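Sample intake sheet
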Amino acid sequence: MKKLILVSILIMVLVSTALVGCGAKTTAPAPAQEPQVIPSPQQQTGKFLAIEPKVAPAPAPEPTGKVYKLRYNDWGPAFIDLGVRAREMAQIVNERTEGHVEIECYFAESLLKRADTYRGLEAGLADMALYVLGTNGGVHQINRVIDLPGNGVPGQTAQRDIYYKLMELYPEMAKEYGNGYPMVNRGLPAEHIHTTDKFKQVITPDDIAGLKTYANPLWSKQFESKGAAVISVPVMEWYTSLERNLTQGMFIHWLVMYSFGINELIKYHTIVGESGLGMQSITFLFNRDSMAALPPEYAEIIRQAFIEWNDAALAVDDPVTIQAGIDQAKEYGNTIVELTPAQQQVWFDFAKPIHEQWIADSEKAGYSNAREIYNTMMDLVEEYKAKGHLD
């Protein structure tokens, strides 16, 4: 009887501590949907690992005059690094605008599905959104040059700088974003190879035969040529797809492996140098109509807050979480293999047809200078390598 009472009390406590949105209570976008539950920073769900917030929330100031309400969409859970920072930025923006801008955050696809992020934002269903370049198929073509697997970009800071330089040199890249203004971009960390005990250690491209894995969609045809399949798995099903053996691998960065608790399902890790197999780009988008409706000083406050978020992620969040992921894999007794430069080059060579296909597809889409853009990027990559710009 005592045990039953204790269990009942525990359930009541957990329910009472559920949080919704960014600081203030946020209603779900449709009556059929449940509010997004945010575990407390100390709570561990068993499948996800909570991240401690970096700043304490301050009381929202009482605004005098018009209050602008904005919706921010994030397809991931609220308690990993990205979600914690989003809530912090919402609080900071509210304070700096003296309460005149309120940002409501929607997590775990409670407003827009990850695959609908860009189209939903452009249509005004969200005012701001976290967007991984390429997750809306057919929307962006020329910008995906920075995402090409095996391009050898030496680190996240280099990736960000190279991307900004390309957008400066080639205005058509910014134009392709249409009604979604990219406030700030950065490269996600290097992607490595992680497989479960239902498969095996992957060293060469030939080793992926028979593998079903999550990976950058640009790998699809090359993986098919080796008898493997790239499976599109929703973010909130990454863990369960591995647990149920629907997939046996993740070609992704260490942030996901740690923050989503996936290391406990993995047996083999293959590290592909500093550049990994590639880096996808993460962008913070602002609907241009929503931005134009704000007083310019408020729009600038939001932009600066997201720049600060991006800088904090590069300097603090990402390095700490990456190392935590590697350390955790070691604690689990997983097998970690680091490829030699010669072994890495085999993967880069394997990716080359993807580069040529991207050039052909871009030219077909009307970008006659696609090869020039590609060559410029690769020249910049070599420049950064020569400077020893690894981070």
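Comment: The chain has twelve helices and eleven strands. The radius of gyration is 21 Å.
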